[in-house]
Amino acid sequence: AGSYSLYFFAAEGITVGQVMFARLPFFTADAFASKPFAGNGAAIVLLPNRKWPKDVVMQNLAAEINLSETAFVQPPICAGEGVDVAKEGAGAIERIKSLFKLAGNAPESTIPLRWFTPTNEVSLCGHATLATATALRVGVGAAAPSIAFDTMSGVLVANASGGDGTSELSFSLSLPSNAPIDSVDPVRDDINAAVEVLLGGQEAVESVALTRSNKKVLVVLKEKGEKLLRSISPNFDALVQCHDGSVFKGVIVTAKAEEEDTVDFVSRYFAPWNGINEDPVTGSAHTALSPFWSSRLGQPILRGRQCSKRGGEVVVEDFSKEENRVNVGGPGILIIDGSAPLELSY
User: Fold this and answer.
1) Which are the catalytic amino acids?
2) Please, which residues have CB within 8 angstroms of residue 193's CB and are 6 or more apart in sequence?
3) Residue-wise pLDDT tens digits, 287-319
4) Whole-angstrom Cα distance, residue 221 to residue 234?
5) Which domains does the chain have, with CATH numbers?
């Protein structure tokens, strides 16, 4: 019959063998969502000090949570040495939260941030950054109007607006622009195979481009392409076999909006190479969509809808030519405020 071990995690955590599992503040928030259970959900874990746990530890928790992204954040430098979880015991969670109330936009109050999908770490994730800003503002009580995050993609600033009882809480994120390039060599055959799986052929495709900086393919559909975009139902096992993930890890399909007069363009994003068959709403995809559609439509500020099952709207403002940046914005809603066990090994 075999044997098993059953562990109950007390408020202060548990030691299994020689390993300390500490209970740390844990949130989930929906980004680009005006109501709960819409937009794109992300998990946020607040770490007790300025040390990163081992990558495999963070990856294991992200796989267990199994949202499209889990964000791990360290407290700012101005919070001091952090919290000794073993000494604080059951009071550690509130003490850790208090460190993050100091989050802001000054160098000493910047928040180090990393993102993990269920299968791997990624270099940029807009929706999980917006979700993290939501958790810090609503779940922790950080009062600064702007919060800066130190990431693999540089310093990203989330500027808050609303949330005062008269309007919903929203954030605008300043992200690096990932303007698509025309050449798709040397992976043209792989991209053609992916398009075949997604669309059943090339007939509806106007153009295909590659954003090498964040490993995304941008597939633009011809006029009257929105209906086809909304109907895509791919074989994901076949899609992931089209490429090994070395040059691109996701495919954006986009078209000019025709069915909704409140948005300018529509899109969907498929990323089985990152362990996410279809991402509900993708901030990083809009760092490519913004420069493309702003150039095409001649407007710097646009509104896009990502037509996944959950769906969500994203406001983009393009500064690609002047600053090589894109502002990506939308509302955020805190869903869960709790705790999660994490192995504190470094």
Assistant:
1) 69
2) 242, 243
3) 999 999 999 999 999 999 999 999 999 999 999
4) 16
5) 20-176+333-343 (3.10.310.10), 188-323 (3.10.310.10)
